[in-house]
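Review form for a predicted model. The reviewer records the input and the model, then writes brief findings.
Reviewer: anonymous (R2)
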Amino acid sequence: MTIPKFNAIKAALLDELQDGQPHLLRELVPVLARKFELTPEDLATRHASGALKFENLVRWARQHLKDDGTIQTPARGVVQITEQGTQRRNIGGFDEPLFRTAELPAISQSPDEALDLAMEQLTTQLRSDVLDRVRQVLPQQFERLVVDVLLAMGYGFDVSSGHVTRFSGDGGIDGLVHEDKLGLSSIYIQAKRYTENSVGRPEVQQFLGALTGAGATKGVFITSAGFTRDAREFAGRLQNQKVALIDGTQLARLMVEHGVGVATTKTLVIQHVDSDYFDAAWDTP
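Model under review:
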């Protein structure tokens, strides 16, 4: 199951406090996780800020419910429903006028969720801008670019282990990345800078022939456009040789992910409460 929405977590937290007794928030986190049937993978999911997503949402839910008077914190790390919270639960919602003020508007996401959305939008736009620029470079520059991407991804033994072949008469091989210093294992590259045309099966077959002629078993075909379904199905059926197909969308994603062709303009430092510090400080007799 995916991590629930912010308001669902608020409602579930309020349900767990319906007995009117004080509860430790840190003990309610696993209770709520079981209630939402979250997997270990779900619980390990993090926000763009680095904070654990579900635990962070529970804490933001606590804070919002406290700010609007629904719950109180009678002691450090302890939460308890208030009389107003009991009324709200009986009414059955977070949008009732009784619980909405100009100072505390109803919200449907935590600040970290808003940051996640903003980061996703910025990254999507950046990938689009990168792909636009990639489609404007010269074919020779594109060949160098794809070699740089593979090196940035960790292929090759150092930054000098990849190179572009001669622009003409390359026999269908545009670049090489040596995975070891002796050249015993190499990745052969075909690069096609297209703006609209998709790469079809015949071009992939031609690249396969070039690999065979070079005695190679591994190849990467990268284009700034796309691949036809027939081309992908053909590559997927290969047995003795492996050819990875990377289209323009994937290329732009890899460039952004590995810092090729992009630069950092601002670094945002996001801090959160160090629970380990406080637990160690106040749990010790």
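Findings: The domain at 6-109 is CATH 1.10.3380.30 (Sec63 N-terminal domain-like fold).
Further findings: Confidence is low (pLDDT under 50) at residues 94-105.
Recommendation: see findings above.
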